[in-house]
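[worker-b] picked up task from shared queue
[worker-b] task type: protein-ligand structure
[worker-b] ligand name resolved to pyridoxal-5'-phosphate; SMILES cross-checked against name lookup, match
[worker-b] sequence length check passed
[worker-b] input payload:
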Amino acid sequence: MNISNSKQLFERAQHSIPGGVNSPVRAFKSVGGTPLFIKHAKAAYLYDADDNKYIDYIASWGPMILGHAYEPVVKAIQEQAVYSTSYGAPTELEIKMAELIKSMVPNVDLIRMVSSGTEACMSAIRVARGYTGKNKIIKFEGCYHGHADSFLVKAGSGVATFNIQTVPGVTAGVSADTLTCAYNDLAAVERLVEENKGEVAAIIVEPVAGNMGCIIPQPGFLEGIRKICDAENIVFIFDEVMNGFRLALGGAQEKLGIDADLITYGKVIGAGMPVGAFGGKKHIMEVVSPLGSVYQAGTLSGNPIAMIAGYTLLSILKEQPQLLKELDDKTAYLKEGLDKVLKASGTPYVINHLGSMLSIHFSDHPVTDFASAASANNELFKKYFHAMLDRGVYLPPSAFESWFLNNALTKKDLDHTIKAAEESLKEIL
Ligand SMILES: *Cc1c(COP(=O)(O)O)cnc(C)c1O
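[worker-b] inference finished, payload out:
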């Protein structure tokens, strides 16, 4: 495949943008090679700077759930743009968006729009601290909640450690307030809460994790955390930036039947525009300024272009519930096909899959947390990634990312992907 234009662009980008990209995973560092520069996309396909066509399994990391350049969304943006792209004053559209989300997620009483998933998670933590008057938070190793300081604490291996480990640029003081333990390890959560009695403001989790590949919560894990939070006055935060409006209209809460206190959104909620949101139960959300005293603001929050894009997409998902069902069915079909060719290849593998999230780990043991994800054969994943890319299939450029299917994928695309997987495995094993 000729990617000479992408190579040139990447070279040029590095003179003016750190590492040539505006978000690190795009640089292909974990799989090696040259990142592809994208010119345009339509439905399930990406077209790069050299006019190569790829079947897209990233969907902008989730938002393009009904495919790229989805006509109703494009039209809504065009119609709105002529009325100005921002006012910095309230609009009816923001109320409609909030009302729509409330109609889909029963325990969202109040919701505040922001411009990214990072902002949503960082604000939710602030709200939990303001509400409880406590400082510490618990997060899980391998869960990603955006790049705010509190979330960038490098997790120790296994059960949480009291060692203060920081990444450069994050102060030890901030890191000390973030406790970590392994995903799916309820006993570790119990221990941490006990050891920090009366100090934990919030437990934040990706209910279905997507940032260490796809990892499914084991029965009892989230239910157990719910009980601990109730007993200890801890705010339970579901980070549904990936799961929201994808696993079900009501997100992971609906899919798994668990009630969180605060929920954060991003990705699908903005249909590809920069949008995030945090919301939840009234007695907690009431602390948010100007109703309460926990300050949170944004010049472009609730931006009309972003709102009309998200509102249009979410309305369609709500009005046509069969769309998410179709997407789940397509994912199950792909999973079955991949299962067959992987089994035939003889290489150890694990496919984790729920709804339209899926990932492959080349591992001979179950992948249930970060440690088991990290001990998979990621060298083999790199080869697999490139072999698939050569066959026109664009997977997330890291074994630590869930694949995101979109409903524009056709059966032909899925069959092509399964065939590409079969050929790729033959080539690399
Ligand atoms: C992507 C992601 C975020 C961060 O969202 P941004 O819009 O990139 O800031 C937070 N949490 C989860 C679970 C995510 O997948």
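[worker-b] attaching auto-annotations
[worker-b] Residues 116-118, 121, 144-146, 206, 210-211, 239, 241-242, 266, 276 surround pyridoxal-5'-phosphate (CB under 6 Å).
[worker-b] releasing lock
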